[in-house]
Amino acid sequence: MSPLHNDRFLRALLRQPVDRTPVWMMRQAGRYLPEYRATRAAAGSFMDLCKNPQLACEVTLQPLRRYRLDAAILFSDILTVPDAMGLGLSFAEGEGPQFAKPVRSSADVAALGVPDPEVELRYVMDAVRTIRRELQGDVPLIGFAGSPWTLATYMVEGGSSKEFAKVKGMLFEQPKLLHQLLEVTANAVTAYLNAQIAAGAQAVMIFDTWGGALTPRDYQAFSLHYMSQIVANLNREAEGRQVPVILFTKGGGGWLELMADSGADALGVDWTLDLSEARQRVGRRVALQGNMDPCVLYAPPEPIREEVATILASYGHGSGHVFNLGHGIHQHIDPAHVEAFIEAVHELSPAYH
Predict the structure, then answer these.
(1) CATH number of the domain to which 324 belongs
(2) Which entry of 12, 119, 120, 190 is 20 to 30 Å from 297 by CA?
(3) Is residue 67 classed as helix, strand or coil in its secondary structure?
(4) Which of 37, 66, 77, 261 is catalytic?
């Protein structure tokens, strides 16, 4: 593996001194980039793109060719894990993900096993290895997975949902069954992330997209408990350095203190909370990642720059902040606006270090 030339992102996650605030974007390899749209069209479908390590590498690297980013993130999808568990994932145009075999009964849960990441998910591991080779140590590579609760919402609903009626119905009617589903899914995610680390991921992130849909009590029992279990079982060192873990619950601002107890090195923060408050609440326990509203990028460069300045000032002086959006970038954003955002972080953040 090539030596790492820019470790600013990894250092910030571990609250070590940096010369400026590192920056990357959730979903930075995505539909807002014309070169991504061209590669996806050439691949034939979204899943064909995910399952082709060379093309997954290509789209991972595309934003790094355009922008001065401090990290690359593996191009994949959180639903590769339930797909590898045999649920039959497909993406219908304009309808989002769908599973051929949703998990609704005790027999369905009993049929699930932990996939071997180097067999059923070999295409992801090959993508990680390919990306690490092609990066040549320019920036670190982030691996990721969905949280067990978030994956379970798709597995039980059979696809995307706004009300989560089926999975919440299971939560209240058959909590033991849901816990069984979450346990096997947590084991699958743990094996998957450890395999990504072994293949070359230098930091990992757990995306809990739908944790914010739960009550505080149910969040602790059905989401945070399983994420903490995963964190406790991850290999936290590779290639002679620490592998930081980022935990992100969208809509989870009310539970930051609990999340800081998970054992993660950093917490993702969405735009519904000021970083000054988040930093005050977690103290020195974890680093923070975030938290610009992605919709700011619809604005022209000057308001974008002003928002970057506001967020940097909100976090304040010192290390422990990774600048990011509060969620994934939207597909209709102008790539020139992204450049204004990245360059504003480069220009304005050194004053805080």
Answers:
(1) 3.20.20.210
(2) 12
(3) coil
(4) 77
Domains of the chain: total: 1
Averaged pLDDT for residues 10-39: 98
Which domain range does residue 260 map to?
Answer: 8-352
Angle at the Cα of 290 from the Cα atoms of 286 and 296, rounded to 5 degrees: 165
Catalytic pick among 27, 37, 129, 285 = 27
Does the pTM surpass 0.85? The reply is yes
Element (H, E) at 204: strand 203-208
* 67, 154, 192, 219: the active-site residue: 154
DSSP 139-201: S-EEEEEE-HHHHHHHHHHSB--SS-HHHHHHHHH-HHHHHHHHHHHHHHHHHHHHHHHHHT-
Active site residue 77: yes
- At 56-113, the pLDDT tens digits run 999 999 999 999 999 999 999 999 999 999 999 998 777 789 999 999 999 999 999 9
Q: Phi-psi category of 146—alpha, beta or left, where left has phi over 0 and alpha has psi -120 to 50?
A: beta
Please count the other Cβ atoms lying within 10 Å of the Cβ belonging to residue 339.
Answer: 15
| Cα–Cα dist 193/243, whole Å | 11
Decide if 138 is catalytic.
no
3 in any annotated domain: no
Q: Is residue 1 part of a domain?
A: no
